[in-house]
Amino acid sequence: MAYYKKRLPFDPKSKEAYKISRSKIDMFLKCPRCFYLDQRLSVKQPSMPAFTLNNAVDTLFKKEFDIHRANGEAHPLMKKYGIPAIPFQHPKIDEWRYNFTGVQVLHKPTNFLVFGAVDDIWVTKDKVLVVVDYKSTSTYRKIDLNDKWKQWYKIQMEIYQWLLRRQEDLKKDGYKVSPKGFFVYANARKDEKAFDAKLEFNLEIIPYIGDESWVEKTLLEMKECLMSESMPKANTECEYCEYRKKAKIYEVQ
To answer: Is the pTM of this model over 0.85?
Structure first.
């Protein structure tokens, strides 16, 4: 398994494939200027605190589903929701779930090596692969994928589906990727009488029908952005750009 290696910013003259992660596609969609600053000029956005509790839930979900993967059987939650699949066993499953390798595709029109780490993949008896994303939260509200900020979850899943559909070894073995994916949600309960050094969760599976049709066009736009010698306009809703804009007013005085 490859380990993280710090890389140089995008060089328009380079013929070497340029590695683009799923999160950088998100960044471009949110604000082309921030993407250009990050990938072309190495001006990074301020780092965010690590979501360690969410990561812990994610890790435990993977361990739990791996038990059923090894046994070639469905998880009880899959049975509860009537999902006719089992966790997918494949020699590359750990590589596909590792943040710095993930599922990779060389996109020849841009020479981007696009990659993203999936949480899980399930498979039906008809060799149809299903992308699965683990999520955790704590809310009294019903979990709804139509919340504005959850649109990024949908984009994330669609990128994973796009990546898996372009794995030549899977296609040769007769596998197809379903447009339907699932979000496995762990919702921490806040109605318990006490903490008692443990959290109780309600678990549910939410289906989502993905549409990858935007991916190809977006990658071409990203390449055009990086090849340009001029910085793109900022997204008017970008908090980072708005901060820089307002700070600059006082910094030049």
So the answer is: yes
